[in-house]
Amino acid sequence: MKFTKLRLVGFKSFVEPSEFVIEPGLTGVVGPNGCGKSNLVEALRWVMGESSYKNMRASGMDDVIFSGSATRPARNTAEVTLFLDNSDRSAPPAFNDADELQVSRRIEREAGSIYRINGKEARARDVQLLFADQSTGARSPSMVGQGRIGELIQAKPQARRALLEEAAGISGLHSRRHEAEMRLRAAEQNLERLDDVVGELATQIESLKRQARQATRFRNLSDEIRKAEAIRLHLAWTQAKEQEAEAKSALAQATSQVALKAAEQMEAAKAQALGSHRLPSLRNAQVEAAAALQRLTIAHTQLQEEAKRIRERTADLQKRVAQLDADIAREQQMARDNADTLTRLDEEEALLREMEEQAAEGEEEALAALETMAGELEEREALLASLTAERAEAAAARAQAERTLRERSERCERLNQQLAAVNRELAEIVARISALPDPAAKQEELDTAIAALEMAEEAVAEAEEAVSAARAAETDARASLAEAKAELQRIETEASTLAKILSAGINEDFPAVLEQVQVERGFETALGAALGEDIDVPTDPAAPVHWGTVPPHGDDPALPDGVTPLASVVKAPEQLKRRLAQIGIVEPQDGERLQAQLKTGQCLVSRDGALWRWDGCRASADAPTAAAMRLAQKNRLAELEAQAVEAQDRVAAAEEALALAENRVREQVERERQAREAVREAQRVVAGARDALAAAERASGELASRKAVLEASVNRLSEEHQEALEALEEARAVLEEAPDPSELQAKLDRAASEVAIARSKLAEVRAAHEGRKREAEARQRRLAAIAQERQSWIFRRENADRQIHALTERREEVIEELEALAEAPDDLDYRVRSLISEIATAEERLKEASDALQEAENAQAELDRRATEAIQSLSAAREERARAEERQVAAEERRVEIEARIQQAMNIAPHLVFQHTGLGPDDKLPDIAEVERRLERLKAERERLGAVNLRAEEEQRELSERYDLIVAEREDVIEAIRKLRQAIQSLNREGRERLLAAFEQVNGHFQRLFTHLFGGGTAELQLVESDDPLDAGLEILARPPGKKPQTMTLLSGGEQALTAMALIFAVFLTNPAPICVLDEVDAPLDDHNVERFCNLLDEMARSTETRFVVITHNPITMARMNRLFGVTMAEQGVSQLVSVDLQAAELLAEAS
Questions:
Q1: CB-CB contact of 890 with 243 (8 Å)
Q2: 82: pLDDT confidence band, cut at 50, 70 and 90?
Q3: What separation in angstroms does the CA of 425 have from each of 418, 438, 718, 737?
Q4: How many whole angstroms separate alpha carbon 849 and alpha carbon 1107?
Q5: What is the pLDDT of residues 784-830, one digit of tens each?
Q6: Does 699 score more than 80 pLDDT?
Q7: Could you tell me the pTM of the whole model?
């Protein structure tokens, strides 16, 4: 993009619309201090997105608006527009469809700024990124303002790195990286919140699982809960009715307030109109006062001019007196010279009369010979004239005939060419008409395209139905997966609970033998009853009490017949085998019968835990022992582990089904997308067919009209061509009949030679006669002249006295006029003093009229403000009324909602709810908060007592789905975080590569430019303070000719300025910015270095496309500019622009 023009309206001192044209090459801006040159630079920075009012030399951003002057009021708005040439299409994609971009920024007092790009509103960030991508911007190093050289010199190395970033073209990288880092932090915070939500949801799901198992005393508390619900609904209904009444009252008050504010607004509008009516008369009075002041000023100027004329007239009269004195002296001298002149004339007259008498004798003979020769010449000239006339007539007739023949021949040729051109164009039109597409065929194509579009739309409808079906199948599969996961989670939760319970009672030092026993399901109670507390005894020999190994003996008694030993259903350690072999399992009804057959140490147990021992002890099966429960829990845990494996298989199958359903959904969505793409393609084809049909019909009509016009032209040109051919034949016949001038030319030549001979002889005679005649005439003229001179000198002698007398009188008149003029200044001074007094009075009147107008305008502004406030108050009242209406509607909806809840919950009218509260008519209604607490306590008690929550399972499923959704979102957030980190790493990597490459280029250019500017010496750039180029600083080491290497701060002011310029221009050579603004950077340089600076500017302008704007006071720099813009302040406080194209001026000077 290229900067082409800057337009300012109301910005700082540029109150009138001004345009600053930015053309290729060097553009200079000149003007006196304080005229507004730097305001141009600030306007350019402001429109490019400058957000700091301090950088605009202001105390607030509203200060950039014109604040008024002695003769102009302040403005309320300011606008700056920057025109950019985008013919190379280098703008961002959002704005790259236009050849020219107009970036404008408009500010209104106390309303902020608005950015627009080609008339569309844009964010400040969009504008800043637009210029940052072009290696420029409000704070770009290419905007070298006043003091920027010093800032660059005094800047820290970290701050200088911005120049390298500018050269590398990564000015926008930091903002994008910062934005990515902010997104990364936001994503990480979202991830933390999601983790918290996931943990909370897991807790809630566990709570719902517990609630589903608690269902013992639900019905016992239902009545009390229903009564509490009735009391709460009754109280809520009563409260809703009261709120509805209050809302209606508030609405009535708001309506009355709106009426009051409307009346106030009408009064304010009336006052505003009356104030506006008074302003024109005050403005007319102010204009009349100004006109009167102007008339008096003009009269004062005229008196001053009259005084000046009197002074000039006095000086002229004094000069005239001196001239008259000189004239009188001259006349007196001439009177003395007259006598001498008259004596000389008398002597000359006597000599001439003697010569006249001698010449009269030969005059008569010469006159007779001259008359004879003149007669012969007259006869020959008459013959020559007649021959010449006859020859001219013949030549004119023939030339006319030839000219007519040539013109008619040219007309025939021209008509022939026109006819051929029209015939060619007619043939082309006929060929184009034959080559045009047939509108009927185009109509058929359009019909075909419309049919294809309809088919595509039908395919889209079918695809949408297929997508809906696939999504329904996916939903079903997701529900099945959720159920399978819920079942698996339930099993895992129960198993983990049992595992915790089983692990809680284990003695870690000496685990009981129970931990090593496995019993078939259903026999846990029997084993616990048979072993009793012995089952908790460990097998570890180190334990104080433990099971020892005693092998079975051959004489161990056998159990009664038909009794199953307990060892057959129990897997136990070797230490328990002998004990288990003496325990039998029987049915409860057989225990008492078989007890008598037991041997010493034997016992019988039933499955439900009844015990019959050999010594006659019996134990009923009232409650299972702790060991039996522990064994049952171990068996249940084993079953749960088996069920968990099956549930995992079901979850895997459900996940596979869900994956298939999701793939199906993706396939159907892709088919739908393809179908929609086909519809869009068909729509494009239909649009193209319609355009083609319209174009064919339009082209056919245009060509047919053109064909008719060309056919008419062919007929007309054919007729004209035939007429031209007939006229051409007539011209040829006239030319053939014209006379031949050759014979007349021969006669004319002979007559001319005879006339020439006669003229020669006559000339000789006449010359001799004329010589004598001229001598006589000269003598006569001299005699006459002598007589005239004598008379003149006599007259002069007589006139000298009169002239002396007249000059003396005129001198006296001039002296009198001088005396009269000497008295005139006193009268003029009196009139001037009177006019000055009148002017002061007129100025006072003008000031009073202006003050009255200003007061009226201020009063009108106050009335406008009051009218605006009245409108705002009215709007606020209306808004309050609308809010009151909303509250009234909300209260009514609340009441209706409560009534609906009553109807839904209790199916009775609201006023009958009190009958179901269990309260008497005289009982005091409890507080709703107390009811809520009691209701919550009852519900909590019901939950604690195991009340059945019928929605617990449904809520668990919903939370599980939400849990799965949030987990999926969490995975998406993790993936987004990964991509953001990769993007940041990519930005950093690209920035480092480009920054290092730019550093090498800038360093090379800087060394070359430093040597060029200093005429020798060396310099280099170094990256310091960090190994990472993105965090490193830029240090400058310079060695001017004849000096040691040193840092920037040790150089002189001029050397620092030249070094900084070399660095800035090295950046431009690496990555030229579209514009460079240099605000008085040549101020610290001497004339020699200014020449070097200007040479460098010329080189930069030739080698890059950067457009330079140079603000300067140096005449050398001004002379090297291609064009100059002058900033003037003819009116105090108001800047204006004038321009001069120096190159055009040089060309005009050379041409002149």
A1: no
A2: very high
A3: 11, 22, 15, 42
A4: 50
A5: 777 777 777 777 767 777 777 777 777 777 777 777 766 666 666 77
A6: no
A7: 0.37
Contacts of 930 (CB under 8 A, 6+ apart): none
Orientation angle between helical segments 363-435 and 626-737, nearest 10 degrees = 140
**Quick one: 937 exposed, middle or buried, by C-beta within 10 A (0-12, 13-18, 19+)?**
exposed
Write out the DSSP string of 916-959.
GTT--TTSPPPPHHHHHHHHHHHHHHHHHTT---TTHHHHHHHH
- Answer yes or no: are the C-beta atoms of 41 and 20 closer than 8 Å: no
Q: Give the position of tokens 């961002």.
A: 92
Query: In this structure, are residues 576 and 517 in contact, taking their beta carbons and an 8 Å threshold?
Result: yes
Residue 442: enclosing H or E segment and its boundaries?
Answer: helix 439-504
Structure tokens at 702: 């245009």
Query: How do residues 737-775 score in pLDDT, each as one tens digit?
Result: 766 666 667 776 777 777 777 777 767 767 766 777 777
CA distance 1068 to 1100: 8
* Distance (Å, whole) CA 1036 – CA 1059: 9
Residue the block writes with tokens 């819920």: 486
3-class DSSP state of 422: helix
Is residue 78 exposed (0-12), middle (13-18) or buried (19+ Cβ within 10 Å)?
buried
Pairing status of strand 603-605 against strand 564-565 = unpaired
Give the Cα separation of 729 and 667 in Å (integer): 89
Maximum Cα interatomic distance, the chain, rounded to a whole number of Å: 219
Nearest alpha carbon to residue 995 among 1038, 1028, 1037, 1036 = 1028
Strand partners, 80: 8, 105
**Contact partners, residue 182, CB within 8 Å, separation at least 6:** none
**CA 988, CA 979: separation in Å to the nearest integer?**
14
Tell me the C-alpha distance between 136 and 330, whole Å: 85
CA–CA separation, 627 vs 469, rounded Å? 55
Burial class (CB in 10 A: 0-12, 13-18, 19+), 1150: exposed
| Cα 637 to Cα 281: distance, rounded to the nearest angstrom | 104
Q: Are 1018 and 1006 in contact (CB under 8 A)?
A: no
**412 token code pair:** 């025939």
- Note the pLDDT tens digit of each residue in 588-603: 888 888 888 888 888 8
End-to-end CA distance of the chain: 38
Residue 1127 pairs in a beta bridge with 1137
Separation between Cα atoms, residue 216 and residue 208, nearest integer Å = 16
Q: How far is CA 27 from the centre of its chain?
A: 26
Give residue 362's Cα distance to chain centre.
111
- Report the candidate in 590, 633, 581 with the shortest Cα–Cα distance to residue 610: 590
Question: Which pLDDT band holds residue 215 (cuts at 50, 70, 90)?
Answer: very low
Of 44, 35, 28, 20, the residue nearest 1093 (C-alpha):
28
Sign of torsion over alpha carbons 490, 491, 494, 496: negative
Task: Say if CB 147 and CB 41 are below 8 A apart.
Answer: no
| Other CB atoms within 10 A of residue 447 CB | 12
Distance between CA 811 and CA 764 in Å, rounded?
A: 63
Strand 570-571 to strand 518-519: parallel, antiparallel, or no bridges (unpaired)?
A: antiparallel
Amino acid at 115: Y
Read off the pLDDT of residues 290-313 as tens digits, 9 standing for 90 and up: 787 788 788 778 777 877 777 777
d(CA 426, CA 441): 25
Rounded Cα–Cα distance for residues 158 and 645 (Å): 63
Q: At 866, which amino acid appears? A: R
Quickly count: other Cβ atoms within 10 Å of residue 639's Cβ: 13
Name every residue whose Cβ is closer than 8 Å to that of residue 201 and which is 6 or more positions away in sequence.
959, 962, 963, 966
Return d(Cα 103, Cα 7) in angstroms, integer: 10
How many residues belong to the chain? 1152
The encoded tokens of residue 1120 equal 């090297």
